[in-house]
Write a structure and sequence with these properties.
The chain has 13 helices and ten strands. The protein is α/β, with parallel strands linked by helices and 382 residues long. The chain folds into two domains: 5-210 and 374-378, Rossmann fold, CATH 3.40.50; 217-364, Aspartate Aminotransferase, domain 1 (Alpha-Beta Complex). Strand 3 and strand 4 (74-77) form a beta hairpin. The longest helix has 15 residues, at 113-127.
């Protein structure tokens, strides 16, 4: 499989280019696209998504306006203090001929980079600036789709459009889907040799951490389900060396959790009781007890069902100590984070009503079927 970086550079020759990039924006020889564009005197502006162009900003921290230390080019923030800060401003685009998006996604709606792409696509359409996507693999494959969509009134930066939690698209395919309404001058530079059923190791590309808490492909495989724990007071393993593989809380019994999860007969995974102490984020420097998830078969893994099972069985151990996360989350006030992640209040209410893992997941089946039909005409790869 090959990235079409030479084709991208050729298509931008002679243009004033703005680029939305992060540390994954490298070719197969680890040359960063900002540097390649700067060498060709094409780079007019950089735009820093969550974590910044060079990846030196932590989870939920504001990205400031600055100059890129390597190229000296201005870096505009696309992750500030307000929702408005997530979109390129008209004055930042008026001197550009093209706006390029080149960031490795991880295949989950909650991961904010494709939300950044969609907002930038809309801004480019309004400014009549060409929008170019250098496509990259969906690292967890494009054949499987899981979870529900975002319902009206529950939009946030972890879900701005009605797509499923595990969306099964590449960045280029999602850009095409969103552009059906946006109407931008869109160009998708396609990969060569990628197929929908491939996982990231099949691509032959090196894994570059797309964010500080996405250290390995195993993290990405689990993320569409284990990120749901962000909507609770359970630690999803941030502040450890294995985020989203380790999870727990101070009051949990790991051995009981392992037994309960094993009874769910979840495909592709096994469980081991463990204890860990996060160095920051939830339960910082407090001993947590829970589970380490071991992936046996990434192709049969159903991470959303797995995440649902983790929440259901952790809550069942102690409903009084278990809590849904409250407070401002991804620029939204007064809506529980779990509702923003799952797309409506139904999941939270159903968990509290005691529904099983199977019932909770089955409730998403009709909207997933509608989404699959909608996305079909935008697929670029076999």
């Amino acid at each position: 499989m090959k990235l079409a970086v030479p084709e991208l550079l050729a298509s931008l020759q002679g243009l004033r280019v703005g680029a939305i990039l992060n540390p994954t924006s490298v070719d197969q020889d680890f040359r960063h696209l900002a540097d390649l564009l700067h060498e060709r005197k094409a780079l007019a502006a950089l735009f820093g998504p969550e974590h910044g162009v060079r990846g030196d900003v932590q989870y939920l921290e504001e990205v400031g306006e600055s100059r890129d230390p390597r190229t000296g080019v201005i870096e505009h923030s696309l992750y500030g203090r307000t929702f408005e800060s997530l979109t390129p401003q008209p004055g930042q685009l008026e001197h550009l001929d093209a706006l390029v998006f080149d960031i490795q996604d991880v295949g989950s709606r909650y991961y904010t980079y494709l939300a950044t792409m969609g907002l930038a696509l809309q801004a480019a359409a309004r400014a009549k600036v060409r929008f170019v996507v250098l496509d990259r693999p969906n690292p967890i494959g494009g054949a499987r789709v899981e979870g529900g969509i975002i319902h009206p009134g529950f939009e946030s930066f972890v879900g701005l459009w009605p797509i499923c939690a595990r969306h099964g698209l590449t960045a280029g395919e999602l850009a095409l889907l969103l552009n059906a309404e946006a109407g931008a001058d869109l160009q998708v530079i396609q990969m060569q040799g990628w197929k929908r059923d491939q996982l990231y190791p099949d691509s032959g590309l090196p894994w570059v951490m797309p964010s500080p808490n996405m250290p390995a492909i195993e993290t990405a495989l689990l993320y569409p389900g284990l990120c749901l724990l962000e909507g609770t007071n359970l630690s999803e393993g941030r502040g450890t060396t294995r985020p989203f593989e380790l999870w727990g809380a101070p009051w949990l019994d790991g051995a009981r959790l392992v037994q309960a999860l094993a009874e769910e007969k979840l495909p592709g995974v096994r469980f081991r009781p463990c204890s860990f102490t996060p160095t920051w984020d939830k339960h910082s420097r407090v001993r947590c007890h829970g589970v380490q998830i071991h992936i046996d078969d990434p192709r049969t893994l159903e991470p959303v069902r797995l995440g649902v099972a983790c929440i259901v069985h952790a809550r069942a151990q102690d409903p009084l100590q278990f809590r849904w996360r409250t407070g401002r989350y991804e620029f939204v006030e007064h809506i529980p984070a779990i509702d923003l992640l799952t797309g409506s209040a139904r999941f939270r209410a159903s968990v509290e009503a005691g529904q099983s893992v199977a019932q909770l997941c089955a409730a998403w089946d009709p909207e997933r079927a509608q989404y699959l039909a909608r996305r079909e005409k935008f697929l670029l790869y076999e």
